[in-house]
Design brief:
Length: 176
């Protein structure tokens, strides 16, 4: 993977296999603080779900992008969770680097976000790409099936959303 921050957006097409795979895991409420904020926001951790992980890996293996080093997928650990939000829900700006690694500017571990539902308005995904001394804020309006892939070190969040359900699934890869 390149020594820079980046973000890739693609679309998986049919989300049905991903939804079925998510339903197979053991669900638990998170311990501690999460970035999901606002009324009716809910984050749920999912454990023991290798079917979803394998679907994402298979999809990533089909992508031809210089940012993704596919050889890293031979040894890793994952974290998997879902987030749901309703009107006025949002995600505060955050990144997935460990607290001890806050000083690290670039990180080769991967985060993925798959959108299963999108609200009728608002709820745009925003992120900051840092390259050398240049920081830029970007935003994108996700569609159902959009898969966003980026390093842990990319700061990101979700603007407050309008009416309707926003549901996403996040899978992080920590490479060993």
């Amino acid at each position: 993977m390149l020594e820079q921050n980046w973000l890739l957006k693609t679309n998986v097409g049919d989300i049905t296999p991903y939804i079925k795979a998510i339903e197979q895991g053991r669900k638990e409420d998170p311990i501690g603080k999460t970035s999901a904020k606002g009324p009716n926001s809910k984050q749920v951790n999912i454990f023991g779900n290798y079917n979803y992980q394998n679907l994402i890996i298979d999809f990533i293996n089909e992508i031809n992008d210089p940012h993704i080093d596919k050889s890293k997928f031979d040894k890793f650990e994952t974290s998997l969770w879902t987030v749901e939000g309703q009107e006025h829900s949002y995600h505060e700006l955050h990144r997935h680097s460990q607290a001890a690694e806050e000083h690290i500017r670039y990180n080769n571990n991967l985060s993925t976000v798959l959108y299963l539902n999108v609200p009728s308005s608002g709820g745009d995904f925003y992120f900051i790409v840092e390259k050398e001394k240049d920081n830029r804020l970007y935003r994108l309006t996700p569609q159902v099936g959009d898969l966003i892939i980026f390093p842990w070190s990319v700061y990101h969040g979700v603007y407050p959303q309008g009416p309707g359900l926003r549901k996403s699934v996040s899978l992080d890869f920590e490479f060993k």
